[in-house]
Amino acid sequence: MSHRLGPALCLLLGWLIGASALAREPRYTVVRVDPRTQALALYLRDEHDRPLHSAARLQSWLAARGQRLRYAMNAGMYEPDYSPVGLFVADGRQLAPLNLRDGEGNFYLKPNGVFLLSDSGARVVESSRYPALSKGVRLATQSGPLLLQDGRIHPGFDPQSKSRHIRNGIAVKDGIVLLVISDTAVNLYEFAAYFRDTLHCADALYLDGTVSSLYAPELKRYDARSRLGPILGVIE
Questions:
Q1: Quick one: which of 90, 132, 86 has its CA closest to 113?
Q2: Staple 233 to which of 72, 109, 167, 216, CB 3.0 to 4.6 Å?
Q3: Where are the beta strands (DSSP E) in 75-120?
């Protein structure tokens, strides 16, 4: 299936700051995006149905269309063919369905969740709640596990876990989307605690680890740890 995923043009007002400017914890970088004034979009493949794979290729693809990629981050887990493991909605079109199955790996460490953007704003919700909220959704990506649900850290996380990776995730605070990536290897409990204790979020969603990448030219960040599936971008 061939599709083009260009966002609508809108005024871009926002800022990118490192976590050290936000809080005492120096190990994270946070991109703040106001979806009311910034163009936030999800990308997967080009018009020839080829996976985009990287922020660098996405930037070139957008430049050919008169747009510029300001920030980008990997946006959810994917299969070996780079297709999303779970729900993927771009420009109001569902390209992959909600996945409520059981399985192995972080995606299936229930509860997992969905980040969505609709006419009523952005939010992170537990996956089974999505169908009731799907009307008017412009973009959505499913991943897992939920780092936080109603302010509580996922019960499956071990504070002493030795599984440490560069990790990234997403949350919404007062209508602002927070894209967060660790700058050092952390475990899932530490990552969730940062969203809870420093960013003061109620709900947060894990996007991935190991492949976690940030594209932020203002910080001279052009991470390219692996070929990517879904990519979340801020466009101008």
A1: 86
A2: 72
A3: 88-90, 93-96, 113-118
